[in-house]
Structures are given as structure tokens and as C-alpha cells.
Amino acid sequence: MPDLAPATRADARRNRQAILATARRVFAEQGVQASLDGIAQRANVGNATLYRHFGSRCQLVAAALSEQMEKYAQMAAAAAAEPDPWNALRGYLTALCRMQAADRGLADLLTSDTLPDAAIDAARDNARRDVVRTIRRAQRAGALRADFAPQDILIILMANAGLVHRAGAHAPESSARLIALLLDGLQAASATPAAPPPSESELLTVMRGDALEAEPPGVRGEAAAGG
């Protein structure tokens, strides 16, 4: 089969870029379960074109949010390198929850484990390693309550994600207030007895509870046929 003409390849690149740019905006506004038909419509492409470039919702979510997940990992690495451990943890949580409040897609992705993508898994694993290091440093310094566990980061992100979804246009300021209140309670000097955190396996079960919705039946067939 002959190679595609240059004009055809250029059109394909433009379509892919349009789909990705639109998906980022739509996922940020509506979360990762946003309508793929709506994304295609806003990108001015057909459904079959979308699925020729991204064979499933998972592929589109991974491509659209990969940069945000990389920023997430970089923030954790920066916190691990910050000399003051309490400032590191406070800055990390504040910045991360601010990102969640501005991007419902990221808020979804940080609190779920239903996306089979190697790059996103690596970003999540790297971030967790660096955050655990920051937590331990803050506890050794006597700044962070001794019973704080790595799982509590996910609990905070889940709480913030729920707030982001319900607060709508008021999400940024509501999220900022939530995190400020939580941070006061995380300081060792303010600690009072708390229930133990759920285990990592229990949280993983919760994170895997809502699989990403698959594409509508028949659409992939249309895409494969050139639609």
C-alpha cells in the first residue's frame, strides 16, 4: 500500500492535535467520563476519526493527561528536595489540590487506578516514592503528626476531588479552604487521636471500583473501516 500523501498526513496530525487539545479542555471541565461524542464534535472531527487516533477512552485520557501527570510527579520530586520538610509537605499538598481544583480530569485520575498506561503508572509510582520520603522527613522533624500514613494523601485527594465535583465554579476557593483547614490538623502540635487509615489494599479496591466507560458499540468498527 502506498504511503499517505503529505497533505493527508498533515490533516491527520491536525486532527490528532485538535482532538487532544479539545479532550484536555473537556476533561478539565467535566472529568474523564465526559462524552467522547462531545469531544469529537467540539474538535470538529467525526467519531470515527477520533477512534482512528485513540482506540479507546483510556488511550485518549492517557494521552490528554500525560503532561499533567508528569507535573504531578515533578511536584513530588521537588517536595522531596525541599530542605524544610513541613514546608515541603504543605507546599506539595496545596499545589496538588490547586491542580485538582482546576482540572476535574486530573482530580479523577489521581483517585482512580483504572487506566492501564505505563507512563501514568510510572508517574504515579515515582510521586508516591517521593511523597513517602517527604512524609517520613516531616515526622522525624516533629512537624507532622506521627500517625499520618501515605494512604492519607489519597484520602485527602479523594476528599478534594469530591469537593471539586460538587463546588463547580467555586471549586478553587473551596478547595483552598479545605486544604488550609486540613493542614492545621496535620501538624503534630494539633494532633488528637484518630481512627487508623484504611490499608493500601482497601484503598486500591476503592480506586479500581469505577472503570472508565468503554467506547460506544460499533464506533471502533467504523473507525477501522475508515469511517
Based on the model shown, name its key terms.
disordered C terminus, 70% helix, 227 residues, mainly alpha
Provide structural commentary.
By secondary structure, the protein is mainly alpha-helical. The chain is 70% helix and 0% strand. It is built from eleven helices and no strands. Helix 4 packs parallel to helix 7 and helix 5 (85-102) runs parallel beside helix 8 (150-167). It starts with 5 loop residues before the first helix and ends with a helix. The model is unreliable at 216-227 (pLDDT under 50).
Largest β sheet strand count, sense and barrel closure: none
> Which regions are unreliable across 5 or more consecutive residues at pLDDT < 50?
216-227
SS element count, helices: 11
The share of residues in extended strands comes to: under 5%
Question: What is the residue-averaged pLDDT?
Answer: 86
Helix content: over 70%
Shape: elongated
Provide the gyration radius in Å: 20 Å
* Beginning-to-end CA distance, first to last residue: 19 Å
Derived structural class: mainly alpha
Order of SSEs: HHHHHHHHHHH
Instruction: Say how many strands there are.
Output: 0
